[in-house]
Design brief:
The protein has 8 helices and 6 strands.
Length: 218
């Protein structure tokens, strides 16, 4: 689908939607108009980008996300929430991992993270935590400098409001399963290897909306 066609469809569904072009400075020169993981991380960790957003409340919704239902407004009390991820080389030792691909964030919190926290500070804090908790197998340096790795650690360092892992699954799932979740991130990444789990999440959504799921026929 061409961008203009996609924009037209979104505008029809959401008349109040505004569209902003991505500045060329964020894109890789050899990637054309496509966005690489590097250019995506540049955008998400750019102060000017966050300052340009005309709202304090930000819902990040990538194209590999499925929304089942509206999330509870109680999540608006959080500063950053998304699906759990579990790569031991990158999770925050105290907060775990919060995926950014489908996430709710507060604009000012992201700006505070960028102002007060650096990758170097994250490495120093991790080193102290590793020593304190006796985790010799864990490296102070994270393996991937992705934006969600940064913001998970930065929010924990600044003691921002992060819901615990068992609550995050009510907002979004990736490798976890919860039939009452609101979002499924990574539908094309094979995180959920059991198709029955995906079907169960969809069935629960339909029933909560008063729609009877279709019965398979022989």
């Amino acid at each position: 689908m061409e961008h203009a066609q996609f924009e037209s469809q979104v505008a029809e569904l959401l008349p109040g939607a505004a569209f902003e072009p991505i500045a060329a400075k964020y894109l890789d020169k050899d990637a054309g108009t496509n966005m690489s993981i590097h250019s995506y991380n540049r955008i998400m960790m750019d102060v000017d980008f966050w300052r340009s957003i005309p709202s304090e409340h930000v819902l990040l919704f990538q194209t590999d996300c499925i929304m089942y239902r509206m999330f509870d407004k109680a999540f608006l009390q959080c500063d950053y929430v998304g699906a759990n991820w579990y790569n031991p080389a990158d999770v925050d030792i105290l907060a775990g991992g919060i995926n950014g691909g489908c996430s709710y964030r507060k604009k000012q919190v992201m700006l505070d993270c960028l102002h007060y926290v650096s990758w170097e500070l994250i490495a120093r804090v991790r080193a102290n935590q590793i020593k304190q908790h006796g985790l010799p197998a864990v490296s102070a340096e994270v393996s991937k400098r992705n934006e969600d790795v940064f913001y998970t650690h930065a929010c924990e360092i600044l003691q921002m409001v992060l819901p615990p892992p068992e609550v995050r699954v009510l907002f979004a799932v990736e490798a976890d399963f919860h039939e009452q979740t609101c979002f499924y991130h990574g539908w094309n990444k094979d995180y959920q290897r059991n198709p029955q789990m995906i079907a169960k999440m969809l069935e629960t959504t339909l029933r909560s909306a008063g729609i009877a799921p279709a019965t398979p026929t022989a």
